[in-house]
Design goal:
By secondary structure, this protein is of the alpha+beta class. Strands 1, 2, 5 and 6 form a 4-stranded antiparallel beta sheet that branches. A 3-stranded mixed beta sheet has the order 3-4-7, covered by helices on one side. The chain is 36% helix and 32% strand. A hairpin with a 2-residue loop joins strand 3 and strand 4.
Length: 195
């Protein structure tokens, strides 16, 4: 009995291997010939030297409350963003044995998260009982754009930028001090505070 099961399993394995071999040969034969494949050279449109120091990464889920005319929308939006500094724009000078570094203004980037479920409409309604309450995609996008600017201002209001500027100053001072062995003074340039 065991011998019959063994023979059946070996036979099934051989048939499966043969089927896979036939499939592979057919697939290989149906691939395009070398002379039929067109290769185009890569094109570089812009080369930019840019080094960024990202000191704060942000992830928040925020309520979106918007209104167009008599229609209202309430949604939950997951936001992602960073506060970073362009290190190519650092200004460095020396005064005696001290290195003075002027940190450039911060770059705040906020965007809607691309994670699944990052945008969820909770409720829509119309003050006019007989009017439509639904929003078009372009109307929702217009509400989101206004919301994004508000969220960007919130990054300043909540102190994320202040924290990022302090972290960046400490990081740059530590990096330069450890690599040169000299004292480093970091000057924070004016913030791009969004009011």
């Amino acid at each position: 009995m065991i011998k019959k099961i063994y023979i059946a399993l070996v036979s099934a394995a051989i048939v499966l291997a043969a089927c896979l071999a036939v499939y592979a040969v057919r697939k290989w034969r149906s691939s395009p010939e070398v002379e039929h494949v067109t290769l185009t050279p890569a094109r570089i449109s812009e080369i930019r030297s840019m080094v960024e120091l990202s000191t704060v990464e942000i992830y928040e889920e925020l309520p979106l409350k918007g209104r167009i005319g008599t229609r209202h929308l309430v949604a939950r939006v997951a936001m992602e963003g960073t506060v970073s500094f362009d290190l190519d724009s650092l200004r460095v000078s020396e005064q005696g044995d001290t290195i003075t570094v002027t940190l450039p203004p911060e770059k705040v980037v906020m965007r809607e998260s691309t994670r699944p479920g990052s945008y969820k409409v909770i409720d829509v309604w119309n003050d006019n009982a007989f009017g439509p309450s639904q929003f078009t995609t372009s109307e929702e996008n217009a509400l989101k754009r206004r919301f994004m600017e508000s969220a960007r201002r919130g990054v300043y209001r909540k102190g994320y930028v202040r924290e990022a500027r302090q972290r960046a100053a400490r990081s740059v001072a530590r990096l330069l001090s450890s690599s040169t062995g000299r004292p480093v003074r970091v000057i924070l340039s004016a913030s791009r505070n969004a009011n």
